[in-house]
Amino acid sequence: MNVEKLIAGSEGDRSALIQRTASRVISTEANALTTMSKALPEDFVRVVDLVLNCDGRVIIGGIGKSGHIGNKIAATLASTGTPAHFVHAAEASHGDLGMVTPKDICVLISRSGETTELRDLIAYTRRFSIPLIGISANSKSTLMRAADLQLLLPDAPETCAIGMAPTTSTTLTLALGDALAVALMEQRQFQPDRYRDFHPGGSLGAQLARTGQIMHEGDQIPLVTPTTSMADTLIEMTSKGFGIAGIVEDNRLSGVISDGDLRRNMDLLLEKVAGDVATSSPHVLSPTVLVAEALAFLNENKISAVFIVDDENHPLGIIHIHDCLRVGAA
């Protein structure tokens, strides 16, 4: 297939038309988002408080494009500290209503508020007194009249030529879901280590890992005493493979010998002991430091390895810059 031939007709007026269409779509949605940011739905704060006090989960329901957006909102909530689950509106009528419990909160999404498939979910929440939050652009719709709290979308046009394809409305709903998730995160004081618990895979998980989780421990740590001969110190440095050795006194790290220290003490090196060569007050890190921060620390100080110590300077482990890169923190 010749791609160049397929796009050959996109020059001139046609190309300009395509670009104007794209710009119009983005501008229309951006204007709608700006409108909503300046005038949030009246019940937004009450929704946040309701979710914060919920003993169960946030059940998101919808169908079609609203269902896809609802699925994403549920995933975002669940990954940021708010237990959430998506229920397909049509499947709910065929047994999935059993996923919704009296302890839950139900959030139903429908631009028109008249989506037939939501009927059974709405009725179920009313029957069992399950709090219902409606997201719609129609305040007088069946959904919004039944809802305990309303998240009303701005009256903004869809961007397609026929004004019917969900575009602006789905963008607004997605942004509203993100706003809800972030507001809940901040109210819960959700911390990076908890976020990592929900995202252990990939580079994001690696960057949120702590040095204590990737450090080399026990016999892998290159340690000597101030009186250790340099011959034995070199063996320790070589066998452990980090290019450095730590000096311990009373089980506390008091110095470090690096390759640079060896070069600076080449004269009669083997006649010296470790304490003669070591650099005092070495760089160290806590086991709670993020791996991404450790990588930046290593680069900033132009060192390839660093010891991990506790509050009393007891050596707990060691990490090499390659450890940070290996787990994908770069």
Total count of strands: 12
For the record, give the distance between the C-alpha atoms at the N and C termini, rounded to a whole number.
39 Å
Task: Name the overall outline.
Answer: elongated
Major sheet:
5 strands, parallel
| Average pLDDT level | 88
The CATH architecture of the largest domain comes to 3-Layer(aba) Sandwich
Instruction: Walk across the major sheet and give the strand order.
Output: 2-1-3-4-5
What would you note in describing this structure?
- By secondary structure, this protein is an alpha/beta fold.
- The chain folds into 2 domains: 10-190, Glucose-6-phosphate isomerase like protein, domain 1 (Rossmann fold); 211-326, CBS-domain.
- Helices cover 45% and strands 16% of the residues.
- Helix 3 packs across helix 8 and helix 4 (64-79) runs parallel beside helix 8.
- The longest helix has 27 residues, at 12-38.
- The protein is elongated.
- The two termini are 39 Å apart.
- The mean pLDDT is 88.
